[in-house]
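stage 2 :: seqdesign
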């Protein structure tokens, strides 16, 4: 299972939210690059970068931060947040993203997202299936749709998607464990590479996610709050 630390960006700073609520913003570092370099120095190979300003603004915003991390580290970066147009996608890839994650665009503009899958391939395009009470959440989790998460994933599997990041918003930033039951159900009912995100609080959570068959696990606050150290992650990697 791949270990994928997250860097969430607001106004160029490394932050974390709780349950996606922008009012709970906590700044952990003024320099996302500094954080990324520490991850790399401790054996981490993958990084999940979220442009929270972009998610709120409906267009890519913090691409300069992405470019800085991509050019000054060798981390393989998947990038999401505010990718709504072909131009946004072009900027993200030109700025150094190895992969992009589309969530809101996959809900609100299916033709564009399916075109991206066809053009770039499933190794470059990840489906973001973030949910509240199993309903897909969009726009930086500010809005909730009526779309159930598993049928949503199944529909995009038919379009060629192979990699899915699923965040249970209720778990995000709570440090109370991942949504194991939800992930088990997804893995039983679909045949995708599932990347779990949200709620990881300790190494045991990571072992559970690996045991049920997750391809990757994204974690953020557990690192920033010292619940899991980068040295422990280095040992896992």
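stage 2 :: out
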């Amino acid at each position: 299972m791949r270990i994928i630390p997250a860097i969430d960006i607001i106004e160029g700073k490394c932050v974390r939210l709780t349950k996606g609520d922008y009012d709970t913003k906590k700044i952990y570092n003024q320099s996302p690059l500094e954080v990324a370099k520490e991850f790399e120095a401790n054996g981490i190979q993958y990084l999940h970068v979220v442009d929270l300003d972009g998610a709120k603004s409906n267009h890519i915003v913090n691409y300069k931060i992405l470019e800085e991390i991509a050019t000054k580290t060798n981390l393989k970066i998947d990038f999401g947040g505010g990718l709504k147009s072909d131009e946004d996608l072009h900027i993200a890839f030109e700025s150094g993203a190895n992969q992009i994650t589309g969530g809101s665009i996959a809900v609100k503009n299916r033709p564009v997202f399916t075109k991206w899958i066809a053009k770039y391939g499933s190794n470059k395009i990840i489906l973001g299936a973030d949910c509240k009470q199993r309903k897909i959440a969009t726009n930086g989790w500010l809005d909730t749709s009526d779309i159930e998460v598993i049928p949503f994933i199944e529909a995009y599997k038919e379009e060629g998607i192979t990699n899915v990041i699923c965040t249970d918003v209720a778990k995000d930033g709570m440090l109370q464990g991942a949504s194991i039951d939800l992930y088990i159900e997804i893995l039983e009912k679909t045949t995708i590479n599932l990347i779990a995100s949200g709620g990881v609080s300790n190494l045991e959570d990571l072992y559970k996610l690996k045991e049920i068959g997750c391809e990757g696990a994204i974690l953020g606050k557990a690192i920033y709050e010292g619940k899991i150290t980068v040295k422990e992650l280095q040992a896992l990697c």
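stage 3 :: structure notes
- The chain has eleven helices and 13 strands.
- The mean pLDDT is 94.
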